[in-house]
Amino acid sequence: MKKQKRVFLHSGEEGHLSDLRRGQKCVVLDFHNDNAALRRRLLDMGITKGVVIEIKKFAPLGDPVDIRLRGYELCIRKVDMEGIDVRVL
Amino acid sequence: MKLALLGNQNSGKTSLFNALTGSNQKVGNWPGVTIDRVEGVIKKSNATIVDLPGVYSLSPYTSEEEISRRFVLEEKLDLIINIVDATSLERSLYLTTQLLELDVDLIIALNMYDLVKKKGININLKKLEEELGVTIIPISAKTGVGINRLKTRILNRRYKKNKHKKIYPTDVEAFIQEVEREYKYVKNNKNGKFHKRFGAVKILEGDRDYRILTDANLKVKKQSLEANYNMDGEQLVASLRYDYIVKVRKNTVKYKPHQETKTEKVDKIFLNKYFAIPLFILIMAIVYFISISLIGGLTSSLISAGFNGAEHLTIYIGTYPIVFETGTIGLGPLLANWLTSVGASSWAISLLTNGVIAGLSAVLSFIPQLIMLFICLSILETTGYMSRISFFLDRVFHKIGLSGKSLIPFIVGAGCSIPGIMSTRTIEDESEKKATIALVSFVPCSAKLPIISLVSSVFFTRWGFAFALLFYIMSILIIFALAFILRRLIKRKEHSTFISELPSYKAPSGKYIARDVADKTIAFIKRAGTVVVFFSVIVCLLISFNWRFEPVTNVENSMLRDIGNAFGWFFYPMLGGHWNWAASVCSIQGLIAKEQVVSSIEVIMAAGGGEVFAFFTPLTAFAFATFNLFSIPCIGTIATMRAELKSTKKTLLVILMEIIVAWFIASFIGMWGALL
């Protein structure tokens, strides 16, 4: 398996939610994924345009990720975070 | 009066249900404990209350969420009790905004209110009630605070009527009202005239169960709304709901600046990069060490001596045996003596002592071990640790075609496969769910514990625990290997998801655990008293008579021998090249209930003496136990598997897989043993 070099985002930059480091905060700009059920689920869990998300911690094996938004914590896989466009705060 | 209990997953619905009805439904601290609807009656009233699986929204993903949605939309309800987690208000109220669009009255039970102050949250209840237009009762389902108040309000019908509070901006609101007017029967199902507003919003969202807009004028209006907000209907509604909630929250709730919570501190250890997995293995090993080795060694010979009598008692503390000279007579021999003295026939005595007593004692002597196991599992389930394990093992499980959420069925399955299989309903992805269902029964359940215990204590006296552990390691290896193979066989979508809330840790409730353990233990004893006794008697009859129904003195002439012999070929290799009828009888009995394996051994030994099983070497015994642990599960599990897989063909395939896997592993061990 090819090991991908991870590029982290800096404050003010735009990118995918999956490219954030632990402790970083970001604001959601839009979604781009074609999985309708997943999109619906993410909306219901409060991931809407403009919401602020904080990366709380990574699972001990690096995936999934525990994120904090709207006053609660949510676990989500990195693949699913790739479809969420954000701007780092 | 008919009520429904609705709320997010893990918001404490079942705790509230238990508090209102006085029952003891399963409670756990992971999202999605309740997987089917459960009905109860509020104490001292005629109000029926239905506990439904937790949902975050009325747009369903998983099968158990579909149950909740269909229930509220199609059932005629007098009131919905919306249980809201006060410590995570914003997300919880999202469901509330949807429930308020139904044509049903609503009352909010604001749960975990006792934790609000501790977390530095200040909620202005009166104002929140006003803003939402809903009656709010703060409660703590766990401690019972506020439950009586909630009950009287419900029973006296003292709550606000649902006036369909307008929560959307004027342009969206106007559109919704127009759809409402235009489509008198917005819902496609037979109960269509209810929930007009809800249906109108669903049409704006484009929900798959609702009609598509056909009216050209409305279509244009919808498109222009979507263009104005730069979002499609689905995104728009979700965003506006949350916008409204944020506005309400800002007016009514004040938070102290965030400090490190207890949960975060505990997670630093349990979810630590390096310690997490060793800690998990250690915890599981401790659970099994305590229940199998420690408690088993202390008690099982005591109980069996009570039933059958013993010259001396051996108690194991760890691996060190302590022998007492006792000369207990035991219940069985006492009963036999008494029956002889009143002149009962010898076959009746043998039926009672060799059938009923021997069969019962074989199973009942494991009760202390089971109680300990049930206590440990109950603690694991209610603290919130299970959600953490599924969080950190998701990556490993995902690689082999399972989900992190598969772990919960496996751990629940260590108690009993049936609830284990049922708890797979929380797994979103169909192929991951099916693979999990197929693998749950490879986890040795509590009824298989007697087999493990018996073999490891009889044949590996001093190192019993190490061999017991070997069975569990074997089960984990089999599950991983099979999952890997199944991943290639089950058709799968290219993408599966794992989305789960990470709940806070909670101290387990002693009262709940006591009742939970008592319920499970009583169920086990009941099964021992009915199924096990019945089939032990049958075995005893078959072993005492020949085909002409004449009593036999030598078991080698009995009916049972011939029946067992018919299957002898199957067990030949795993018994290390021994043709033995008794071993096959025990395995077949295991189909009815796994406890039956050990009780059959006892019954056959009682009738025929130890010679029948004398050929067993430690290795063939180990092979025999392996086969019984991993082959076909009991009938109840098969039925549950069939119900959850919704396919007889797939169920049969799973069973076939289990037989093949168990047979080959057991035969390998058995033949290897014979070669040594």
Distance between the termini of chain B: 72 Å
Cα Rg of chain B: 30 Å
Strands ordered across the widest β-sheet of chain A: 1-6-2-3-4-5
Domain tally of chain A:
1
Largest interface chains and counts:
A-B, 34 and 40 residues
Describe this structure in words.
The complex is a heterodimer of chains A (89) and B (676). Chain A is an alpha+beta fold and 89 residues long. Chain A has a single domain (14-88), classed as SH3 type barrels (Roll), CATH 2.30.30. Chain A is built from two helices and six strands, in the order ββαβββαβ. In chain A, strands 1-6-2-3-4-5 form a six-stranded antiparallel beta sheet. The longest helix of chain A is centred in the middle third of the chain and has 9 residues, at 36-44. The model of chain A has no long low-confidence stretch (mean pLDDT 87). Chain B has four domains: 2-155, Rossmann fold (3-Layer(aba) Sandwich); 171-252, Helix Hairpins (Orthogonal Bundle); 335-362 and 527-675, no CATH class; 370-491 and 509-514. The mean pLDDT of chain B is 84. In chain B, strands 2-3-1-4-5-7 form a six-stranded mixed beta sheet, sandwiched between helices. Chain B has a two-stranded antiparallel ribbon with strand order 6-8. The radius of gyration of chain B is 30 Å and the shape is elongated. Chain B is an alpha/beta fold. Chain B has helices spanning 13-21, 63-74, 89-99, 113-118, 125-132, 147-155, 170-182, 196-205, 216-229, 233-252, 262-270, 276-308, 331-341, 346-364, 367-383, 385-399, 407-413, 417-422, 430-440, 449-459, 464-489, 510-544, 559-566, 568-571, 581-589, 595-608, 618-630, 635-645, 648-675; strands spanning 2-7, 38-41, 48-51, 79-85, 105-111, 121-123, 135-138, 253-255, 310-317, 320-328, 499-501. In chain B, 48% of the residues are buried. Helices cover 59% and strands 9% of the residues of chain B. The A-B interface holds A 31, 35, 37-46, 48-51, 57, 59-64, 66, 70-77, 79-80 and B 56-57, 59, 61, 87-91, 94, 231, 234-235, 238-239, 242, 255, 267, 271-274, 276-277, 391-396, 398, 404, 428, 495, 497-502.
